[in-house]
Amino acid sequence: QSVLTQPPSVSAAPGQKVTISCSGSSSNIGINYVSWYQQLPGTAPKLLIYDNNKRPSGIPDRFSGSKSGTSATLDITGLQTGDEADYHCKTRDSSLSAVVFGGGTKLTVL
Amino acid sequence: QVQLVQSGAEVKEPGASVKVSCKASGYTFTAYYIYWVRQAPGQGLEYMGRINPNGGGTDYAQKFQGRVTITRDTSISTAYMELSRLRSDDTAVYYCARMWPKGNFYFDKWGQGSLVIVSS
After folding, report:
1. What is the pLDDT of residue A44?
2. Residue A84 — φ and ψ, nearest 5°?
3. A102 DSSP assignment
């Protein structure tokens, strides 16, 4: 079982918006920064969002992140078929003194 | 450009050990921590441990304590992850990733992954 909770799957039509949630606790998301990773089929994860809401160079502004309390959210607008991937949230758990991940969410663009 | 290039796929028998390498290039190897994360088939990502190449200090996830050893060779900018007493449920893709220690625990570059199959 993952420390962080994500929905197993989400889906939406091209051009629409989707939201992926990541729920944690006071010892992880509540006090640490969250990052998000995109994993296209058969490839390694890639940094998508860091420090809760910052985008690395080259990541389009269709991707945005936010955090409130013990939950974080990844929003993707203007969905494209190329966005079909698994999305993982990650943070640090201060009680475990370890990096923790969500179980990953598979995005399907219908 | 920054690259982390991992060693190739391995097939091991139960009870054996496997050692996966991660060669860094395009940056100062000792300036970033190297983390190891694995992903079993159809599953999420799982933290295993990390090393500070500047000094060699390590930290291991409790689940893998006693079975995993992470080392580095700064002369060739390479980190290693050795997992012993392999079981069938260790079958997974193993990734290395780098993290800037003064940042907020995000991995800005990943290796391509190394598939390890444990089977008799």
Report:
1. 97
2. -60, 120
3. B
**What pLDDT score was predicted for residue B105?**
86
Residue with tokens 């990773």: A37
> Cβ of B8 under 8 Å from any chain A Cβ?
no
Average model confidence (pLDDT) across chain A? 96
- Tens of pLDDT, residues B41-66: 999 999 999 999 999 999 999 999 99
Structure tokens at A94: 């201060």
Report chain A residues whose CB lies below 8 A from the CB of B108. 47, 50, 56
CA separation for the pair A25, A5 (Å, rounded)? 10
B49 touching chain A per CB within 8 A? no
Answer yes or no: are the C-beta atoms of B66 and B49 closer than 8 Å.
no
User: Strand pairing partners for B34?
Assistant: B51, B98
pLDDT band at B103 (very low <50, low <70, confident <90, very high): confident
- As given in the structure block, the two tokens for residue B6 are 């991992």
Rounded (to 5) percent helix, strand, coil in chain B: 10, 50, 40
Average pLDDT over residues A51-70: 97
Taking CA atoms, what residue in B is nearest to A3? Answer: B46
For an interface test with B, the pick among A91, A99, A101 (most B C-beta atoms closer than 10 Å) comes out as A99
